[in-house]
Write a structure and sequence with these properties.
Elements (H helix, E strand, L loop, with lengths): L6 H20 L1 E10 L4 E3 L17 E5 L4 E6 L2 E4 L7 E2 L2 H7 L4 E3 L8 E8 L6 E11 L1 E8 L4 E4 L6 E7 L4 E7 L6 E2 L7 E4 L2 E4 L8 E6 L5 E10 L7 H37 L1
Parallel strand pairs: 1-9, 10-18
Antiparallel strand pairs: 2-7, 3-4, 3-8, 4-5, 6-7, 8-9, 11-16, 12-13, 12-17, 13-14, 15-16, 17-18
């Protein structure tokens, strides 16, 4: 027979259960998958309302966002830390964090190198540092296709402010670099497209496209990864109709109308004849 628990034992069990409930409400250990494309901004969700008690906290709560390799972002009141590779690209709203427990991390201008596991931790009211959320960031490239007529303009979005190289592969299978931007300053056209390529408002513009411009365009980041892939098809411009051809078309249309009008009385006579035959 099981012996009844003592009063002290029951109190201990209740304390353990209460602590477990607090820990569960303070954090959700399950992973969250978040997806973003290169160049966009993404929110890594996090909420720790039950962890932060402003009435008991003797100072501002402390927030960490980390990857397995480094600290990404830290926040304590007006003080903040941003890792060099994330500088100017990460943020957490202080008011939303301290008043509502919203510790979501905003990440701007996403790069392929940003992909991976992110974890958040909070320390408040003299408590030990607590784990809050684990987020897996997945980064994808851009894919698109366009069809243009000869003489039109191609707008190729670069999707990133990083150094980039644009590579073109024609329908004949030959590939080569056509434009690059490395370091400070403007980009430079390479190959036979000088004078037709210009960078403007985050896009590479190719003016007066030709049939031989049909093919695949890839924007590559400094690591050689494809930020975007665009399949371009250039169609021949429709030739304007010559005056003689227009006159011939008009004559053909008039002749067809004349033949139709001349045959219509014959059809009427035949229909009338058939009617009387049926009456007999």
């Amino acid at each position: 027979m099981l012996r009844p628990l003592s009063v002290w034992s029951w109190a201990s069990v209740q304390c353990l259960l209460l602590q477990s409930l607090i820990n569960l409400s303070a954090s959700d250990p399950s992973n969250i998958d978040v997806f973003s494309q290169v160049g966009q901004e993404v929110m890594l969700p996090c909420h720790c309302r039950s962890t932060i008690d402003p009435a008991k906290a003797s100072k501002h709560p402390y927030l960490w966002w980390e990857t397995p390799m480094e600290s990404v972002f830290e926040l304590e009141g007006p003080l903040r830390f941003e890792a060099p590779k994330y500088r100017g690209r990460v943020d957490v709203r202080l008011q939303g964090f301290e008043e509502e427990g919203n510790c979501s991390l905003l990440l701007r201008a996403v790069r392929f190198s940003d992909a991976g596991l992110y974890e958040s931790f909070v320390q408040a009211g003299g408590r030990r540092r607590r784990f809050v959320r684990s987020v897996e960031l997945n980064v994808r490239d851009h894919k698109d296709s366009k069809t243009l007529a000869e003489g039109e303009r191609l707008h190729l979005k670069l999707h990133t402010t990083q150094d980039v190289t644009v590579v073109f592969r024609g329908k004949d299978g030959k590939a080569g670099e056509i434009w690059r931007r490395w370091g400070e300053g403007e980009g430079k056209a390479v190959g036979g497209r000088q004078g037709r390529l210009v960078e403007r408002e985050g896009a590479l513009i190719l003016s007066e496209v030709k049939l031989e411009d049909s093919g695949t365009y890839r924007v590559l980041d400094p690591q050689g990864l494809a930020v975007s892939t665009l399949l371009l098809t250039v169609e021949p411009e429709a030739e304007p109709m010559q005056p003689a051809e227009r006159h011939q078309d008009a004559r053909d249309a008039h002749s067809s109308a004349g033949r139709a009008s001349s045959t219509s009385p014959i059809i009427s006579v035949l229909m009338l004849f058939s009617y009387f035959c049926l009456k007999l």
